[in-house]
Amino acid sequence: MKRQKSTKGLQQASRPLAGFSLIELLVVVAVILIIASIAIPNYIQSKMRANEASAAQSMRNIATAELVYSTTYGINFSATMLQLSGTSITPDPSNAGLIDESLAGGLKSGYIFTYTPLTTDIYGHTATYSLTADPQSPSTGQRHFYTDQTCVIRSNVSVQAAPSDPPI
To answer: I need a labelling partner for 22 at 20 to 30 A (CA). Which of 37, 67, 135, 157 fits?
Structure first.
């Protein structure tokens, strides 16, 4: 009887080596890059929209706090946003505790808030004010916001918002 030749050596030589080929790796990298090129701009747009929504809500919070301040203390509106904030146990006109300190500092969610007293009454208390919110950079938001003692929030896409801009 003849001994059969071993095919073990031939099988190992024809079997591919373990791992991925260069082409397979390049295809995977290309697919990942395509997915990232679609997802990243959408993420940036959604982040900008979230910042704009946060700024509009912050404007509403400040305007509401001003009305509460005026009603509670009977001296019209605050002279600064810092008077609306505070953490004291006993609120007073200079430390009302109506908004958080980060918002009273004038910066939140990539927007800069500017509070300006416009007119005063005969006692020196603020009778009218304006409040603007502008994006720190074009990547944090596109819309500019404005409100005053009327509590109507207005917006403008190209320049700082003013009382003549349309309400949101």
So the answer is: 37
- Residue 17 placed within a domain: no
Instruction: Give this prediction's pTM.
Output: 0.77
State the chain's mean pLDDT as an integer.
Answer: 88
Residue 7: C-alpha distances to residues 1, 16, 32, 128 (Å): 18, 16, 42, 96
Q: Is residue 165 part of a domain?
A: no
Low-confidence ranges of the chain (pLDDT < 50): none
| Residue 111 domain-assigned (yes or no) | yes
**Domains: count for the chain:** 1
Q: What pLDDT shows up at residue 19?
A: 81
